[in-house]
């Protein structure tokens, strides 16, 4: 029934945010009705204070905000990241998991589904807040229980979503990114391949920092996150005859894995030049992606058809 209700709501709500999450992960780990076409094909424009020129902290935080592996448990397995609920720093008003939400845009974050240790024994979905203007707040959470954005962020990761204890850099980065989310009106735009590819080049630019610093652990961590983002694009080229597009994305992912290996072996010169090459390839992506795009799951109609197929 909830699925039906959601369908009706989707038809009448004027604007809905993206869930920006793994399609395959969600199909496998979330109850039916957790994915909505509108939410996966439109999202609010990001708009950061200071535009696209940001520090490494902000850029790493931006990547981490979109990376399910910052979280643990079911969230991670389902491919959910901060971005899934707080799309581009706004509230994802269409976010809904049957059984854990009482209306779109709400979710029970103290539930055994996310973390057995966090289950509070009550059915208490909360409205997902926008994080816009979070920098100016002095209390966080709907009950205003926490005075520090850093403490709240740690709590979200560890207590709510069973993630591993975040290190200082990860917290600094997530806080730096959230503090750039200036309050602004919601302007919706389509989720697009063009923007997802532009984001990849942005992540690669950030990866230059640990390669310049010769920090293998951070380089490895970032390559894993970036490969996850490539995986999200890969999922959108789902049809059998899209092997060319998928193969290209898989190759990019393998190149990132090689860069991490080179970093681990301290082959820094090689790692840096491999990164520059990959950056160039991504900036001018081969025509195969553009050719497959009209049939890909970036297209709302194709996504709708794909989601309505019986469970794969
Ligand atoms: C499954 C949905 C979901 C995910 C994933 C999620 N959040 Fe939230 N977030 C919420 C909900 C619901 C609340 C309100 C909870 C509360 O008040 O305790 C919230 C509240 C917050 C707040 C408090 C905002 C305020 O104004 O008080 C911050 C900050 C925040 N989240 C950051 C994050 C970050 C960072 C991540 C990723 C590490 C994340 N969230 C992942 C749903 C989510």
List the helices and strands and how they pair.
Elements (H helix, E strand, L loop, with lengths): L1 H11 L10 H7 L7 H5 E3 L11 H10 L7 H5 L4 H4 L20 E2 L18 E2 L21 H12 L7 H12 L8 E3 L2 H21 L2 H20 L7 H22 L3 H16 L3 H6 L7 H9 L4
Antiparallel strand pairs: 1-4, 2-3
Helix pairs in contact: 4-8, 4-9, 7-8, 9-10, 9-12, 10-11, 11-12
What does this protein structure show overall?
The chain has 312 residues and is mostly helical. It has two domains: 16-179, Cytochrome Bc1 Complex, Chain D, domain 2, CATH 1.10.760; 192-308. 51% of the residues lie in helices and 3% in strands. It is built from 14 helices and four strands. It has helices at residues 2-12, 23-29, 37-41, 56-65, 73-77, 82-85, 149-160, 168-179, 193-213, 216-235, 243-264, 268-283, 287-292, 300-308; strands spanning 42-44, 106-107, 126-127, 188-190. The strands form two sheets. The chain has a two-stranded antiparallel ribbon. The chain has a two-stranded antiparallel sheet with strand order 2-3. Helix 4 (56-65) crosses helix 9 (193-213) and helix 7 (149-160) packs across helix 8 (168-179). It is globular and about 50 Å long. Mean pLDDT is 90; it is low at 1-19. Bound molecules: heme C (HEC). The site of heme C has 24 residues, from helix 6 and helix 7.
CATH class of the largest domain: Mainly Alpha
How much of the sequence lies in strands comes to under 5%
Principal-axis shape: globular
Bound molecules: heme C
Per CATH, what is the topology of the largest domain? Cytochrome Bc1 Complex, Chain D, domain 2
Count of discrete domains: 2
Uncertain segments of ≥5 residues (pLDDT<50)?
1-19
| Rg (CA only) | 19 Å
Q: Which architecture of the largest domain per CATH?
A: Orthogonal Bundle
Give the strand order of the largest sheet, numbering strands 1, 2, ... along the chain: 1-4
**Structural class given helices, strands, pairing?**
mainly alpha
């Amino acid at each position: 029934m909830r699925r039906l209700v959601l369908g009706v709501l989707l038809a009448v709500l004027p604007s809905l945010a993206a869930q920006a999450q793994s399609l395959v992960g969600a199909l496998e780990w979330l109850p039916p009705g957790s994915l909505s076409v509108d939410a996966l094909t439109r999202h609010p424009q990001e708009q950061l204070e200071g535009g696209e020129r940001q520090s490494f902290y902000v850029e790493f935080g931006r990547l981490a905000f979109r990376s399910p592996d910052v979280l643990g448990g079911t969230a991670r397995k389902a491919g959910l990241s901060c971005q899934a609920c707080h799309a581009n720093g706004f509230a994802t008003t269409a976010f809904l998991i049957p059984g854990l939400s009482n209306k779109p845009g709400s979710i029970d974050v103290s539930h055994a589904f996310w973390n057995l240790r966090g289950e509070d024994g009550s059915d208490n979905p909360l409205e997902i807040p926008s994080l816009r203007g979070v920098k100016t707040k002095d209390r966080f959470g709907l009950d205003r229980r926490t005075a520090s954005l850093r403490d709240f962020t740690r709590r979200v990761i560890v207590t709510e979503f069973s993630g591993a204890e975040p290190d200082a850099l990860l917290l600094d980065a997530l806080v730096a990114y959230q503090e750039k989310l200036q309050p602004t009106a919601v302007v919706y735009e389509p989720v697009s391949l063009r923007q997802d590819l532009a984001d990849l080049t942005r992540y690669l630019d950030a990866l230059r920092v640990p390669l310049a610093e010769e920090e293998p652990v951070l380089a490895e961590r970032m390559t894993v996150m970036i490969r996850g983002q490539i995986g999200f694009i890969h999922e959108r080229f789902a049809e059998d005859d899209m092997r060319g597009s998928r193969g290209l994305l898989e190759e990019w992912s393998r190149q990132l894995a090689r860069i991490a290996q080179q970093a681990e072996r301290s082959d820094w010169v090689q790692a840096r030049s491999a990164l520059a090459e990959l950056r160039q390839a991504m900036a001018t992506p081969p025509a195969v992606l553009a050719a497959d795009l009209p049939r890909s799951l970036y297209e709302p109609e194709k996504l709708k058809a794909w989601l309505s197929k019986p469970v794969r």
